Amino acid sequence: MTLTAATRAEQRETSLAHVKAAGWGKGLGTLARITRLTLRHPWQASAAVLATLVAATLQLVIPRLLGRAVDEAQGILSANADSAVAAQHALLITAATLLAVSVLRGLFTMAQNYYGDSVGHHLGYELRLATYEKLQRLSFSFHDKVHTGDLITLGILDIEGVRMFFNTGLVRMVLLTVLIGFGAILLISTDPLLGLLSLSFVPFVAWRSSVTQLLLRSTWLELQERLAVLTRVMDENLGGIRVVRAFAAQAFELSKFDRISEGALNLAHERVLIRVRNTSAMNFSFFAAMGLVLWVGGGRVAAGTMTVGTLASFLTFMTILQMPVRQLGLMVNSFARASTCGRRLFELLDQEITIADKPGAKPLELRDGVLAFEGVGFTYPGAEKPALVGIDFTARPGQTIGIVGPPGSGKSTIAHLIPRFYDVSAGRITIDGQDIRDVTLQSLRRAVGVVQQDAFLFTTSIENNVAYGDPWAEEQRIARAAESAQLHDYIVGLPTGYGTIVGERGASLSGGQRQRLTIARSLILRHAILVFDDSTAAVDAGTEQRIRAAIRAHAAERATLIISHRLSSLMHADEILFIEDGRIVERGTHAELLAADGRYRALHDLQLPPVEDALQGAAE
Ligand SMILES: Nc1ncnc2c1ncn2[C@@H]1O[C@H](COP(=O)(O)OP(=O)(O)OP(=O)(O)O)[C@@H](O)[C@H]1O
């Protein structure tokens, strides 16, 4: 799924024409699925619908009672003293009934809102959890394609669109059907002409309010898009604040922000205009209809063919009906929004998880921890050229394999295949003879530790960052891992030591300190196989040597892979693989590769002039 493109395309799917073009069938399928999800809460959903039915019926009774009250009041005025008492009594009963019906209607409307919202909130909670869980399990090939921002939008705005559907779409539909449907029957059966005149504003207001809401929705989506760009610009500006200041680019950044901000302002202005224009048109049609009813009805009252009370009940009914009819647009909007948001959300929830446990997969049985690549080939999904071809090597416990090669040659790809971030396209990878695709992911990832190029840290204490893989690790273990990563002395020198909170993504630490913290995070877990993917690039040579010595002490019982651009990081390895264009083009020990006088030798002479080499050798 290319969500970025889909998002852009679907965000325009908002005007009436688009809703039609999108195909009612698919849209209805999505709405049916949302409805099925809401039915997982049958009690609350039934209570909401029942309360709506009762509230709407009671609302229909109010104009009748009011009309009767008016007739009774008129009766008091025109009656003699005796019958006036009886008429007053009747008016009191009608007034009390009216009050009771109004209070009951209020209570049932409260219940309708409470249960309607409750179903929506439960659904929102479930969908948020399901989405987050899915995102945790989806393979990297999915995350490579989809922009993180789009996933966040999906997790917030789209779930909101689906969540609101029950109350603002379905429940409102029940309310409007009862009010308009039964109301029309009541009015027309009382007086066909006056009934039709009373309802004459309904089609126009329903049409205008639906079109307005769809227009507002399309501009709302555009506004969201512009605000998202504003957020991105601000985020980038703050993230790259040092670059901006260094290039004295504040004025440029400000004008960029101002331009997008102005676009958002214009759109907001457009929205206000749409709303104001349509509200005026709807008000006009309503009052025109009311004028007609007063004119025709007034004539009938004057001719004595209709009571004042009946005319009053027509006018009251029109007033009551006005608001729900205007809300028809909100209902149509809710249907359109739920259908778009739901389709996007379900597309994500239905994504196939390509990297998953095979049915009946067993945990990895670790005996020695021998890692073997057997003729491994790999092509990234959608890529034309393979990233790796025919990779063969074996790493035994206590052994170190060094991997070196030019940028983009496929070194990190080798690291990503071992914990199954991706599955091989050819050949196989085994640990102690077991194909890693046949064992459970959990057991595999417990056995393999990858210290990644990108030293990502969480905004929490240093202690929590080191113990991320094992939150129950004791203090000594945490300190020992930090010591091996040559970070302990620095940490204890901090005023709050291991409790120091690292800033956003570790911003308060230097690049080298961040890398050493991620090394400590991996060392604490005692993986059977450890992979360092260029993870000491930001560490000075002296510190790196000390880390290497400490790792070697740990590595006595594990297989280690070191990927690096810096030869000094891997020249001590038992076997060094020189990768180019995804193939091993040279292999051997440091001495063998120097003697071969090939690419490795050329890189060596470039990086380590003879004097430094001698010093390195002495330090080993
Ligand atoms: N997620 C991805 N999707 C598609 N192609 C990718 C992806 N990641 C890497 N590649 C491509 O695969 C090839 C190998 O990339 P890889 O990251 O393994 O190289 P590398 O040797 O580790 O590079 P460097 O030394 O710069 O880190 C490159 O051509 C790269 O563009």
Pick out its properties.
620 residues, alpha/beta, ABC transporter transmembrane region fold, Rossmann fold, 2 domains, six-stranded mixed beta sheet, four-stranded antiparallel beta sheet, 25 helices, 10 strands, 66% helix, binds adenosine-5'-triphosphate
Account of the protein in words:
This protein is α/β, with parallel strands linked by helices and 620 residues long. The protein has 2 domains: 326 residues, Up-down Bundle (ABC transporter transmembrane region fold), CATH 1.20.1560; 177 residues, Rossmann fold (3-Layer(aba) Sandwich). Helices cover 66% and strands 9% of the residues. The protein has 25 helices and 10 strands. The strands form 2 sheets. The chain has a 6-stranded mixed β-sheet, with helices on both faces. A 4-stranded antiparallel β-sheet has the order 2-1-4-5, with helices on one face. β9 and β10 form a beta hairpin. α4 runs antiparallel to α5. The chain is elongated. The N terminus is likely disordered. The chain binds adenosine-5'-triphosphate. The site of adenosine-5'-triphosphate (ATP) has 12 residues, from α15.
Which range does the strand content fall in?
5-15%
Number of separate helices: 25
First-last Cα distance: 51 Å
Instruction: List the ligand species.
Output: adenosine-5'-triphosphate
If strands are numbered along the chain, what order do they take across the biggest sheet? 6-7-8-3-9-10
Residue windows where pLDDT falls under 50 for at least 5 positions: 1-24
Total domains: 2
CATH fourth-tier homologous superfamily of the largest domain: ABC transporter type 1, transmembrane domain
Average per-residue pLDDT, rounded, comes to 85
Q: Which descriptor suits the 3D outline?
A: elongated
CATH architecture group name of the largest domain: Up-down Bundle
Rg is: 36 Å
- Write the CATH fold name of the largest domain: ABC transporter transmembrane region fold
Largest sheet: 6 strands, mixed
CATH classification class of the largest domain? Mainly Alpha
DSSP helix fraction:
55-70%
Indicate the structural class.
alpha/beta
Organism: Kaistia soli DSM 19436
Membrane topology: Multi-pass membrane protein
Protein name: ATP-binding cassette, subfamily B
Subcellular location: Cell membrane
